[in-house]
Design goal:
This protein has 2 domains: 202 residues, no CATH class; 139 residues, 2-Layer Sandwich (Heat Shock Protein 90). 69% of the residues lie in helices and 8% in strands. A 5-stranded mixed β-sheet has the order 1-2-3-5-4. A hairpin with a 5-residue loop joins strand 4 and strand 5. InterPro entries: HATPase_C_sf, HATPase_dom, Sensor_HK_TwoCompSys, Sig_transdc_His_kin_sub3_dim/P.
Length: 430
């Protein structure tokens, strides 16, 4: 989130807090006015029931009391953003009305906004601080009542003590209730904020992991695209070369090969389109599963259908291999078959898969080359080829070797251990 967005969010939160505080202040003010009127109406016109009768006119007394109530409620709005200042305003208004009107029994309405500011101040910190806020307010309130009783009303000490007890009996429940509720509400709010922050952190971490997994899958599909192109294009070249060689001596066979080239080309286009679709797929879609050693037999069948003599030998159980090991071996076989079809056209090819408890060995060997020397293989290809597979095998603790045989052919062999390095890499791939 940039600085401008943070400032905008801060302003919106500030307006929301101010709006909620204004609503609370309005409710408290209306409740206070109702309480004032409930005391004023029965005593209206009875001079003996009014404080400072003959000194302060009754309408003026009521107006000052309601104005003081409004000022104390303004402390609620201020306390939402500045708790201490709002509390001081509400408490100061209560004390000023006490000394100005000489009417402690008429100030219950002004004690309610003071209790709300205590609540707002107590919720800002730990529970103990909230309790301290309530205690300080009670002590300060008791001191103000004592000073008024002794200094203004001139009551004896014994009567002042009794007055203080009665005043605190009405004053203390509101203030202490505001302090306790504010402290508890603040603690619950902080806990809820911590839970929300943790949930947001977990969500962001999950999104990051998911993004990494998607990027890894896209990289896999990109390599799959290369492998598909290498395999099928090599097959197309092999068929096209054979058709050219047979065009003079056996035109019917050459025409059949051209027909097969067309079918193979369509299949190649479909395969490449499928890989590209996976690469461009929306984030929520799944891509095709990675082929492994279990699909080597299908690979051999496809090459055999192209008049390439391929013999497959499987020793051991190759069905429970780690995914990354199985996929690497499959790609090595596919790359080797494509190269053999192109550079040793017509030569017999043997594929051997040997799986034992400690190691997987895959070997692809073809007879003598007739068309192109293997020295040209390194300068042709489509990008990653055997060099990329050699790197993948090395990451798994294995070895990929490629070189000529004594009979003039070519052998590609991959050996991957099925011990801790491979297992560790397989877990990482999942």
């Amino acid at each position: 989130m940039d600085a401008m967005s943070e400032r905008g969010l801060s302003r919106r939160l500030g307006r929301a807090k101010a709006g909620s505080a204004l609503a609370v202040a309005g409710v408290v003010f209306c409740a206070g006015v109702a309480q004032v009127l409930s005391e004023v109406i029965p005593a209206w016109g009875m001079a003996d029931e009014w404080p400072r009768a003959g000194v302060i006119p009754q309408p003026f007394f009521v107006a000052v009391l309601i104005a003081g109530l409004a000022l104390a409620c303004a402390g609620i709005v201020l306390a939402r953003l500045h708790p201490v200042t709002g509390w001081l305003l509400a408490f100061g208004t209560y004390g000023a009305l006490l000394f100005a009107l000489d009417a402690p029994g008429w100030l219950d309405a002004c004690a309610l906004p003071l209790a709300v500011t205590v609540f707002l101040l107590a919720e800002r910190g730990p529970v103990m601080r909230g309790l301290w806020v309530g205690g300080v307010t009670l002590v300060a309130g008791g001191l103000v009542h004592w000073v008024w009783a002794v200094g203004v009303a001139g009551a004896p000490t014994s009567e002042a003590g009794l007055f203080l007890v009665r005043a605190l009996a009405a004053f203390a429940p509101l203030v202490s209730g505001g302090a306790v509720l504010g402290a508890l509400h603040g603690r619950q709010s902080r806990r809820a904020d911590a839970v929300r922050a943790e949930a947001e952190s977990l969500r962001l971490d999950q999104e990051r992991r998911l993004m990494q997994a998607r990027e890894g899958e896209r990289a896999r599909v990109a390599q799959e695209l290369h492998d598909v192109a290498a395999q099928h294009l090599a097959g197309l070249l092999s068929l096209a070369d054979a058709a050219v060689d047979l065009s003079d001596d056996d035109p019917d066979t050459a025409l059949a090969l051209v027909t097969e080239v067309r079918a193979e080309g369509r299949f190649t286009a479909a395969s490449i389109y499928g890989a590209l679709s996976d690469l461009r797929s929306p984030e929520g879609e799944r891509v095709a599963p990675t082929p492994g050693v279990g699909q080597v037999a299908d690979l051999v069948d496809r090459w055999s259908a192209r008049r390439t003599a391929v013999e497959l030998t499987v020793v051991g159980d190759a069905t429970e291999l780690p995914l990354v090991v199985s996929a690497t071996a499959y790609r090595a076989v596919r790359e080797a078959l494509a190269n053999a079809a192109k550079y040793a056209r017509g030569a017999a090819i043997s594929v051997s898969v040997v799986a034992d408890p400690t190691q997987l060995t895959v070997t692809v060997e073809n007879g003598s080359c007739h068309a192109t020397s293997r020295g040209e293989v390194a300068t042709t290809g489509l990008g990653w080829g055997l060099a990329g597979l050699r790197q993948r095998a090395a990451l798994l603790g294995g070895v990929l070797s490629a070189g000529p045989t004594e009979q003039g052919g070519w052998r590609v062999s991959v050996q991957i251990p099925l011990t801790e390095p491979a297992a560790t890499e397989a877990k990482a791939a999942h």
